[in-house]
From TrEMBL:
Belongs to the MIP/aquaporin (TC 1.A.8) family. This is Aquaporin Z. It is found in: Membrane. InterPro entries: Aquaporin-like, Aquaporin_transptr, MIP. It comes from Planctopirus ephydatiae. The lineage of its organism: Bacteria, Pseudomonadati, Planctomycetota, Planctomycetia, Planctomycetales. The chain crosses the membrane at residues 20-41, 62-84, 109-129, 136-160, 180-203. Keywords: Cell inner membrane, Cell membrane, Membrane, Repeat, Transmembrane, Transmembrane helix, Transport. It is a multi-pass membrane protein. Pfam families: MIP. GO terms for cellular component: plasma membrane.
Length: 214
């Protein structure tokens, strides 16, 4: 999240585009090992919705998870704001890592281009998650595949939208920036949720391995 708030579409903190992608991916990889056995490490409403669509997660638990994820996203943005605002010259006008399209896209990509990117990249992220956690997948390696997959997706998507694939991640910064960030926030809920649900249905229909006799 540091990359956009400090310099709009460019990174000026020494870690660059690749570093930001790795930061996101390694965070998820680490947390999946840390809390995966407790909660499944659902840090993302789109992931939870995709797992519901894929028959891997109960619908009754979706709403409580989404609330927790959004609260977590807001808390994370608040912590980042406290840290970032301690530097002279800090301004929310840099975007504060908010996701955007059109003039607020790092690469000035259109609404349609950004919508398609978020749908497709979230779809692929969920396919990775569903495949890595399939009953026949190598046990214990899912966090590695998921974390590296998220890194790859960020490498592709940061220039387009600052990359969301996670509505909770998008909501946190947008609540601080207000204005255009809140007006464009709808896309970063609709597109990731759509991509995730399509992936869940597709994986369950086409790729899911079922126990013998089922």
């Amino acid at each position: 999240m540091f990359e956009a708030q400090m310099g709009g579409s460019s990174v000026n903190m020494g870690i660059g585009h690749v570093g930001v992608a790795l930061a996101f991916g390694l965070t998820v990889l680490s947390m999946a090992f840390a809390i995966g056995h407790i909660s499944g490490c659902h840090l993302n409403p789109a992931v939870s919705a995709g797992l519901v669509a894929g028959g891997r997660f109960p619908l009754k638990d979706l709403f409580p998870y989404v609330i927790s994820q959004v609260v977590g996203g807001l808390a994370g943005a608040a912590v980042l704001y406290v840290i970032a605002s301690g530097k002279d010259g800090f301004s929310l006008s840099g975007g504060f890592a908010s996701n955007g399209y059109g003039e607020h896209s790092p690469g000035q990509y259109s609404l349609l281009a950004c919508f398609v990117a978020e749908v497709v990249l979230t779809f692929m992220f969920l396919i990775i998650i569903l495949g890595a956690t399939d009953r026949l997948a190598a046990a214990g390696f899912a966090p590695i595949a998921i974390g590296l997959g998220l890194t790859l997706i960020h490498l592709i998507g940061i220039p387009v939208t600052n990359l969301s694939v996670n509505p909770a991640r998008s909501t946190g910064p947008a609540m601080f920036v207000q204005g255009w960030a809140l007006m464009q926030l709808w896309l970063f809920w609709v597109a990731p949720l759509l991509g995730a649900v399509i992936a869940g249905v597709a994986y369950k229909s086409c790729f899911e391995t079922k126990p013998e006799g089922v």
